[in-house]
Fold:
Amino acid sequence: MEAEENYVTPETEFLPCPVPHSVRSYALRVVGDSMTSPVGRSYPEGMVIYIDPERPASVGDRVIARLIKNGRPDGVTFKQLASDGDRCYLKPLNPHHPPIFDEFQIIGKVIGGFVYD
Structure:
């Protein structure tokens, strides 16, 4: 999906964030199963994740990243930040999805995930 700054529609739902966060934090609903893990922490489709763009991300953190192809933005994804030596890449938690080795820019660190009915 494309990333938009301050993108609010009439359908936008505002949810309180239950963890400490910056004023620029926002929430997204997970789409797809790439972050659904067969073991351990999992983010199934429909889960609400909270993102803080002001928190630095480290290897192992879950992040929102803007993909870049041919020097231009090419969508946004939710993955785990991983590294192989000096090279960072984006790793899905679902082993049925391939890692992303394309160029990317981290635009926020996931600070929590919750299921709302």
